[in-house]
C-alpha cells in the first residue's frame, strides 16, 4: 500500500547532456535519470543535445528529452543556445561529452571553441533573473550551472609497466603529456577551466563552475575500445582456424606484441556515469567529505560541497587495474585458445590480424588513481572488471554490433586510422 499524497512540490533539477547519444553521453543521461540519494523531493529532468533527428527517438524512449541542434552544421553557438533555452532558461548541470572529428586540428579547435561559447551563452541566461523558469510563474531565481567537462586519462600519457620500480599512478597533479590524437580535447578542457576560474576582460564573471573529468577507458555494452579487444581475439581465432590449425596446440595460442605487464586500467561505463552524478550531487547539495584545497596531504583550507568541486580535476577509474596478462588469459579462455604469448615479434603474427592498431588498446600502459573522487563524494565502482565478466561483455558487444550500433562502427573506423566524424 502506497503512502498518502502530500502537498510537497517536487523540484526538478535540469541536466543537459551535450552529446547524449554517444557511448558515454547515453550512459551519463541514464545515470542522471536514476540518480538516488537526492534530498527529497528533488529529481533530475534530463535533456540530451544531439545532432541528428534520427537519434531523437532513442532518447525519448529512455525518458530523455531530445534537443536537436548541431554546432558542426551552419548553426552558430548562439543559435544552438536558443534552441536549448526554449526548453529551460536555467541549468543546474551541463555535461560536455562530445567527440569531434579528429582528422583536422583546425576543426577540432573550432569545435571546442564553439562548445565553450555555447556553455557561456547558456550560463549567461541561467544566471539572469527572468519571468519564466523553474516552478512556473513569477521571477525565476538565477542558477549558476555546474559544468562537468569530459576529457580523459590519456591526458597524462602513459605510466611504467606493472611491477616496474618507477611505476606511479597518475593522480590529478600528474604532468600532462597527451598523445596528438587527443591533444585538442585536453587543451579545450583546460581552456574551459581557465575561463570559469577567472574573470572576463570586462570584469564580469564567467557565470558557471567547471569540473574536468578524466576517466580511464570504459567498457560494457557496445564496448568502446574494449570492443576492439574482442574483435582482435575473434580475428586471431579466425586466422588460426583457417590457416594454422594443423600445427597443433601451438596454433591455438593467442599472441600479443605488447608486454604481459602492460597496465589496462578501465572502468565500466555505468560506474563512470555514476561518478558524474556523484560530483553533481556533492556540488548541488553541499555534501561530501571535507577535503583539503589541493592534493590530499597538502596544507590547505578544508572544503566541502561545491567549493570542493568547482575548478577541480577528477580522475575516474576502476578499483584496481588489470594487466594484459589477465585480460589476455580471459580472452584466450573465452575464444577457446589454449594459452597466451606476449612480446611477440611482428613476423610471428597472422597476416589477417591487425596487431598495429591493437597497440592503442593493448600497448598503452596506464595506472590511474581515482582516490580523490572516492574520498570526496563516496563514489565507488561496482561492476565487474573486464577480465572478470568477459563472456557477458562479449555477448553485449555482439548484440550491439548485430544491431548496427553507431559506437561499434565509430571505434572500428578509428582503429583503422579514420578519425573523421
Describe the structure.
This protein is an alpha/beta fold. The chain is built from 13 helices and 13 strands. Helix 5 links the parallel strand 5 and strand 6. It starts with 10 loop residues before the first strand and ends in a 6-residue tail after the last helix. 45% of the residues are buried. About 2% of the residues have low confidence.
Kindly estimate the percentage of residues that lie in beta strands according to DSSP.
5-15%
Shape descriptor reads globular
Number of helices: 13
Number of strands: 13
Q: What is the chain-wise order of helices and strands?
A: EHEHEHEHEHEEHEEEHHEEHEHHHH
Mean pLDDT: 87
State the strand order across the main sheet: 3-2-1-4-5-6-11
In angstroms, what is the radius of gyration? 23 Å
Largest sheet descriptor? 7 strands, parallel
Oligomeric form: single chain
Helix and strand content put the structural class at: alpha/beta
Q: Roughly how many Å apart are the termini?
A: 52 Å
The stretches of 5 or more residues where confidence is low (pLDDT under 50) are 292-299
The helical percent reads: 25-40%
Amino acid at each position: 500500500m502506497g503512502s498518502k499524497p502530500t502537498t510537497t512540490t517536487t523540484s526538478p533539477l535540469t541536466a543537459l547532456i551535450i552529446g547524449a547519444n554517444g557511448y558515454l553521453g547515453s550512459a551519463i543521461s541514464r545515470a542522471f535519470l536514476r540518480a538516488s540519494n537526492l534530498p527529497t523531493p528533488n529529481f533530475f529532468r534530463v535533456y540530451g543535445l544531439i545532432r541528428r533527428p534520427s537519434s531523437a527517438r532513442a532518447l525519448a524512449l529512455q525518458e530523455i528529452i531530445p534537443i536537436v541542434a548541431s554546432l558542426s552544421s551552419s548553426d552558430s553557438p548562439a543559435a544552438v543556445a536558443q534552441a536549448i533555452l526554449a526548453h529551460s532558461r536555467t541549468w543546474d548541470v551541463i555535461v560536455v561529452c562530445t567527440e569531434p572529428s579528429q582528422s583536422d586540428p583546425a576543426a577540432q579547435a573550432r569545435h571546442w571553441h564553439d562548445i565553450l561559447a555555447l556553455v557561456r551563452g547558456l550560463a549567461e541566461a541561467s544566471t539572469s533573473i527572468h519571468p519564466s523558469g523553474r516552478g512556473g510563474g513569477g521571477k525565476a531565481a538565477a542558477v549558476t550551472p555546474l559544468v562537468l567537462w569530459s576529457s580523459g586519462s590519456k591526458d597524462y600519457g602513459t605510466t611504467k609497466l606493472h611491477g616496474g620500480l618507477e611505476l606511479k599512478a597518475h593522480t590529478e597533479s600528474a604532468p600532462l603529456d597527451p598523445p596528438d590524437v587527443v591533444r585538442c580535447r585536453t587543451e579545450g578542457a583546460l581552456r574551459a577551466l581557465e575561463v570559469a576560474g577567472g574573470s572576463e576582460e570586462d570584469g564580469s564573471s564567467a557565470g558557471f563552475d567547471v569540473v574536468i573529468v578524466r576517466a580511464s577507458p570504459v567498457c560494457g555494452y557496445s564496448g568502446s575500445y574494449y570492443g576492439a579487444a574482442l574483435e582482435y581475439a575473434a580475428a586471431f581465432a579466425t586466422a588460426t582456424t583457417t590457416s594454422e590449425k594443423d600445427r597443433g596446440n601451438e596454433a591455438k595460442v593467442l599472441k600479443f606484441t605488447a608486454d604481459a605487464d602492460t597496465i589496462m586500467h578501465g572502468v565500466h561505463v555505468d560506474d563512470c556515469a555514476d561518478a558524474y552524478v556523484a560530483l553533481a550531487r556533492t556540488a548541488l547539495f553541499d555534501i561530501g567529505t571535507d577535503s583539503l584545497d589541493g592534493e590530499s596531504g597538502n596544507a590547505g583550507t578544508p572544503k566541502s560541497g561545491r567549493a570542493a568541486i568547482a575548478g577541480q580535476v577528477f580522475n575516474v577509474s576502476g578499483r584496481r587495474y588489470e594487466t594484459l596478462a589477465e585480460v589476455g588469459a580471459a580472452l584466450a579462455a573465452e575464444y577457446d585458445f589454449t594459452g597466451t604469448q606476449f612480446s611477440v615479434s611482428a613476423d610471428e603474427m597472422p597476416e589477417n590480424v591487425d596487431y598495429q592498431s591493437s597497440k592503442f588498446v593493448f600497448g598503452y600502459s596506464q595506472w590511474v588513481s581515482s582516490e580523490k573522487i572516492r574520498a570526496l563524494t563516496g563514489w565507488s565502482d561496482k561492476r565487474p572488471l573486464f577480465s572478470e565478466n568477459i563472456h557477458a561483455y562479449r555477448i553485449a558487444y555482439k548484440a550491439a554490433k548485430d544491431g548496427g550500433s553507431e559506437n561499434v562502427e565509430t571505434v572500428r573506423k578509428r582503429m583503422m586510422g579514420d578519425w573523421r566524424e
